[in-house]
Design goal:
Elements lengths: L1 E4 L1 E4 L2 E8 L15 H30 L1 H14 L2 H14 L3 H17 L4 H22 L12 E5 L4 H6 L5 E6 L7 H8 L4 E3 L5 H4 L5 E5 L4 E4 L3 H24 L13 E6 L5 H6 L4 E6 L1 H5 L7 H15 L3 E5 L26 H7 L1 H14 L4 E6 L5 H20 L9 E6 L2 H5 L1 H4 L5 E4 L1 H9 L17 H16 L3 E4 L10 H7 L3 E4 L4 H9 L6
């Protein structure tokens, strides 16, 4: 038995035999040619064949992973017509009198290297796209294109990496899991795997492929990123039990998927999902959440070595909104500080960081950082249904300052002729007792409240949520907390705002009935809890 550690990009467990993915090696030789016009004609014919193949793959992806994720193949078709890419190939054919295959391969290497050298991880992942379309073009030039074949039984596909077109071209009914030596969570292959609901592990390293054998028995744990070959009986038994538990959850999903979140006496509530990365969208969709009630944007900062640029943030927000459209996506602005520290922010050490410069206080203290995020959010808003949520509010003065900055950003975008949605919802988190106590004054200024029960509990009970010694004193069901939530709900509704809960208590089904009685409009939970909460809602009768 041998274990390999990688990164899980879609949480599920697969048990079965390995099929090592063998792509046909494309041998490209430099050949001197005499007639460059004839070579360019060959190139054009190959581009037409490649484009037709990509159109077929696009149609397949459209059915399997939806329009937003199938768009990569539209992008591949556009890349085939990219002026810089084609000019480089043409100039090499004409200038060096070389065959089209060699010109395409050399251009592919140059462009892939350019993308790989970029600091932005998203752009680095585009190197694989360039190689993908170039290999397809070369195969069309030399007539070596072949369909991938799998065995009759379901298998765990192991490869160095998989191009997006290779991922979609495989018969997913024969695939138990994708496991690759390389790749990144930003790659389109990882995105497609998540949206195809196929367990996937990436980044197992160089030695992985040299050590595994075709047909060997293996376990792929997409939750932890663990890959096990030739497991012993004890390990296999443990994983079969885990797999069975997951199957039970899937059965629950099938029974509840598409059903309304409605109580026995007819009260309807929204059940949304909390996520910390665009990579979690697949989990939101497969668990049938009604939208995203909390997108933690601080992970863009936590995972970076420098401040994420406006363009980097815009690309992520756009992707989330497009993937979820027309469902609502609520993105929380930067919540750095306290237990979430980032070196490049150079925050001073604080005796009590939970009470210090964090979240909205940090944003208002460094408006240049806040402005970049607001611009990215407003620009992305045209691609879906956006709500922007501001954390750690304690006063109306803070909220006025935030709204003034939003107005300033909108005026900037207007002056630059950059569009943004006119129907963005603005809301605040109720996570301090101060916000709950003055919720009657804050509600007229916003469209919605979302209760962050983790911090509201911490600040109400004076219990540090990071301190294990006070855990027994931290009663999450404390009457004071429930009263503050109920007060906020009452004040929200009286002033035309809606209210949700996005903290851990939202998933506590022992409180579901209480929250519904308070008038809570939305519960946002981890994707895996969506169906559990839906089940609790559908079993509740508020008339009793």
């Amino acid at each position: 038995m041998k274990k390999y550690a990688g990164k899980g990009v879609y949480g599920a467990i697969a048990i079965g035999r390995i099929s090592v993915f063998k792509r046909q090696d494309v041998q490209v030789k430099r050949i001197k040619i005499e007639n460059t016009d004839e070579e360019l004609s060959r190139l054009e014919a190959a581009k037409e064949r490649a484009s037709a193949q990509l159109r077929i793959i696009y149609e397949k992806a459209l059915k399997e992973v939806g329009e937003a994720n199938a768009q990569i193949f539209d992008i591949h078709m556009m890349m085939l017509e990219d002026e810089d890419y084609n000019d480089a190939i043409t100039e090499m054919i004409r200038g060096q009198n070389v065959n089209a295959e060699y010109a395409v391969a050399a251009t592919s290497d140059n462009f892939a290297e350019m993308f790989s050298s970029m600091e932005d991880s998203y752009m680095q992942a585009r190197a694989a796209d360039v190689r993908d379309i170039s290999n397809r073009l070369i195969a069309c030039l030399n007539g070596s294109e072949k369909e991938s074949r799998l065995s009759s039984e379901k298998v765990i596909i192991c490869a160095d990496d998989l191009a997006p077109s290779e991922t979609v071209a495989l018969d997913k009914d024969k695939v138990l899991a994708f496991v690759t030596a390389f790749g990144s969570s930003n790659s389109h292959t990882a995105i497609l795997a998540r949206n195809m609901n196929i367990p996937a592990i990436i980044g197992l390293g160089d030695s992985f492929l040299t050590e595994i054998k075709d047909g060997a028995f293996a376990i792929a744990d997409g939750f932890t990123g663990t890959f096990i070959t030739e497991p012993d009986d004890k390990t296999l038994s443990e994983y079969r039990k885990k797999q069975q538990a997951e199957e039970e959850k899937k059965k629950l999903l099938q029974e509840l998927k598409g059903k309304e979140n409605i109580t026995l006496d007819g009260r309807t509530i929204d059940i949304f999902a909390n996520i910390g990365s665009a990579d979690n969208i697949g989990a939101v969709l497969v668990n049938d959440a009604g939208g995203i009630g909390l997108f933690r944007s601080e992970f863009l900062y936590l995972e970076n070595s420098n401040y994420p640029t406006e363009e980097e943030q815009f690309a992520v927000y756009k992707r989330v909104l497009e993937s979820m459209a027309p469902k609502k996506v609520i993105i929380r602005t930067l919540d750095i500080g306290a237990d979430k520290q980032v070196d490049y922010f150079h925050l001073e050490k604080e005796e009590n960081p939970a009470m210090g410069l964090r979240a909205i206080r940090l944003c208002l203290s460094r408006p240049e950082i806040f402005r970049v995020q607001l611009r990215a959010l407003y620009r992305a808003s045209v691609y879906g249904r956006l709500g922007i949520m501001f954390p750690m509010i304690t006063s109306g003065a803070e909220l006025n300052e935030i709204l003034a900055l939003c107005d300033k950003v909108k005026k900037e975008l207007d002056s630059e002729n950059i569009g943004y949605s006119q129907s963005i919802e603005l809301g605040i988190m109720i996570e301090t007792p101060a916000a709950a106590m003055i919720s009657d004054r804050l509600a007229p200024m916003v469209d919605f409240f979302s209760v962050g029960t983790n911090d509201l509990t911490q600040y109400t009970l004076a219990c540090d949520r990071q301190n294990p010694h006070v855990e027994r004193f931290c009663d999450t069901h404390h009457e004071a907390i429930l009263r503050l939530i109920e007060m906020s709900a009452k004040n929200a509704h009286e002033n035309g705002a809606w209210i949700g809960i996005c903290g851990e208590l939202a998933a506590d089904t022992t409180l579901t009935k209480s929250f519904l009685r308070m008038g809570i409009d939305e519960l946002s939970v981890s994707p895996s809890f969506v169906l559990k909460v839906r089940d609790a809602v559908r079993k509740t009768d508020l008339s009793k």
